[in-house]
Amino acid sequence: MAQANVPGIDPQLQAQCDAFRRDYAAVKAEIAKTVVGHDEIIDGVLICLFVGGHALLEGVPGLGKTALIRALASALNLKFSRIQFTPDLMPADVIGTNVIMEDEHGHRRFTFMPGPIFAQIVLADEINRATPKTQSALLEAMQERQVTAGGQIRKLEEPFFVMATQNPLEQEGTYPLPEAQLDRFFFKLLVKYSNREELKVILDRTTTGHRPDVKAVLDGPRILQHQELIRRVVVAPHVQDYAIRCVLATHPQGQYAIPIVNQFVRVGASPRAAQAITLAAKVRGLLDNRFHVSFGDIRSAIIPAMRHRIILNFEGEAEGITTDMVLEKVASDVPTTIAEELAAAR
Q1: How far apart are CA 72 and CA 173, in angstroms?
Q2: What three-state secondary structure class fits 80?
Q3: For the segment 13-31, what is each residue's pLDDT rounded down to a tens digit?
Q4: Alpha-carbon distance 187 to 272, whole Å?
Q5: 235 near 293, Cβ under 8 Å?
Q6: CA pair distance 56, 46, nearest whole angstrom
Q7: Does domain 1-87+118-231 fall into CATH 3.40.50.300?
Q8: Would you say the C-alpha torsion 295, 296, 302, 304 has a positive or negative sign?
Q9: Where do you find CATH 3.40.50.300 in the chain?
Q10: Which residues have C-beta within 8 Å of that of residue 341, sequence separation ≥ 6?
């Protein structure tokens, strides 16, 4: 990545920006030792990590979703736990529960036994194979970074990052995630099939005794420093307004709604979508050696930040419309500036 100085920022801030890009590249290189291709997915997961959000990966079984997350966990010096979601999994299996313990004197008392949610990187594997009640056990942890159990609030150690995988809803034995939980995921990333060249590399690695040596190259304090740096990236008012209008464009019958939204969308994106777009755009700016956000940075985040935050109406589902189709029109049709907006209205 380029190391040229960013105009207008002091040398100390420049050094922090360079350190972020080095750490980002180092983690990505370690993941690449295990995962072949999927550059867009890896970038999406790393953006979630560095802004303090959570990632939802969707794809059919066998595409490397779990392998990617395990490789990321190996590249970070953080506490890692995996939760395999199944139909019989209970909320207490996720957050923990109070159990009766007896000491050496025969006295009994309740002791809290923490569940696997008490880690820094949590892999929620096949999250939509559990019932909505169990899925919802993650809500408080994902939003508040805390767990309430046995009448006590227990804080989770920062950084705290949930990466969930889910199978497409058309597959047998899946439950749709509640909308409130979907909204807690920073990005929803769609994992697609590998191409011919990538499959060759996968076979060369997995059928010949190859053992990837993924090393931990980043720790928690450095991640928290980078998260703070990202929030200091500058967003000009007119660029921020573009992000806002892109979100408002998904609200059917609203002032900024575009025709495809009015026709096919039942519920538009929440304010969390605007937050996600802005923070992701800040990461893109830093990776491009800029300390400000561009319109292109905003556009790059529109689909992964909102594809799980809008709900189609019956007509949209019947017509085979997808949320990605709607958001592609939002990205192309919403004017970037007020001048373009006025010109389009004439």
Answers
A1: 28
A2: strand
A3: 899 999 999 999 999 999 9
A4: 11
A5: yes
A6: 12
A7: yes
A8: negative
A9: 1-87+118-231
A10: 245, 335
